[in-house]
Amino acid sequence: MSRESRVPRESHIPQNDPAAGHGGADTGQGKRPGSGIRPSRVPRTPRAGVAARGRTGPVLIRLVSAGLLLTGLALAALPLLPPGGTPAGAEMRQSQASPPQPASMAPQPPRLGADPGAPLEARESGEANVNGQTTPLSTVVTHDNGFMVPDNQGGMFWSKGVPRPQADPNHMEARELKLKVRELVDQLLSTVPNDALMGYIALPTSFVNQDDFDESSSLGRYIAEQLFYEFNQRGFPVREYRLPGTLRPREGEGEFLLSRNVGVLPAREGWAVFVAGTYYRDKYSVFINARLIRAADGLVLRTAELVMPANGLLGRMLANTGRKLSGGSMNIGDFDRTTRK
Predict the structure, then answer these.
(1) Confidence of residue 293 (pLDDT cuts 50, 70, 90)
(2) Is the pTM of this model over 0.85?
(3) What string of H, E and C letters represents the secondary structure of the chain?
(4) Who wins on pLDDT, 295 or 264?
């Protein structure tokens, strides 16, 4: 097979004969005779492979650009999805994670009308004053104290409780009085050092009216009874001194041991400390003062004080002063006759 011969293309740039450089004709381009033009290189014919690669580059760039544009349009058209799934997949995972709950059990955003630490004044008219602003006030009479536990399947078990009745205000006043007496004893015995109280036995006495030491009341006698309990619970020895020495059974009534008719007790025993105190009431408050007094010389070892609101319970206890009306007679005369001069 014979090799195909290639015919060189003719150059489009005119070439001057070297021999024409000397005395040749003028070219008509303003060049001086003898200054010939350097022949330019004849461009070579590119091969077929090189030409193909030159055409493929722009086409590939255009295809890639079109693909990126279509991808951007598709992403812009899609809705916002949770990470890692389609809307159907997210909905399915949500349904598997937690079962639907009734509207009453669905979590609700907190509705706080004010800072929980803000000053609050409740009024009987059904309003509350919070930081100087009037807001509605609702009273909850009963509430459900049930509880929920997980069922290990993504749901919850609800155990309905029994509604709790509203606390009785009178009962709360009684509990407050008990706690106040406990606070009184804490003040008497919490002072350190306590070495000065070692070896003593407490003798609680009835608290008396501050304005009349010969007058007590149900409140003063209750405080003494509560002091027996509080001292004993703290390990402080307490002695019951209201023992007549005999047990007195009475038919139809019971057996009686304690008595206030035991005569006069010695008050200068070296081992005894008296727990005595006073109370005073005004229109709004009740003031209580207590002392731990050494019986041998009257030295006050400890003191304590309380201030309580004059509620209904204290008012009833203070009204029973222990003084009863006794029978008697008195002469009644004519007013005009007895006042006539």
Answers:
(1) very high
(2) no
(3) CCCCCCCCCCCCCCCCCHHHHCCCCCCCCCCCCCCCCCCCCCCCCCCHHHHHHHHHHHHHHHHHHHHHHHHHHHHHHCCCCCCCCCHHHHHHHHHHHCCCCCCCCCCCCCCCCCCCCCCEEECCCCEEEECCEEEECCCCCCCCCCEEEECCCCCEEEECCCCCCCCCHHHHHHHHHHHHHHHHHHHHHCCCCCHHHCCCEEEECCCEECCECCCCCHHHHHHHHHHHHHHHHCCCCECCCCCCCCCEEECCCEEECCCCCCCCCCCCCCCEEEEEEEEEECCCEEEEEEEEEECCCCCEEEEEEEEEECCHHHHHHHHCCCCCCCCCCCCCCCHHHHHCC
(4) 295
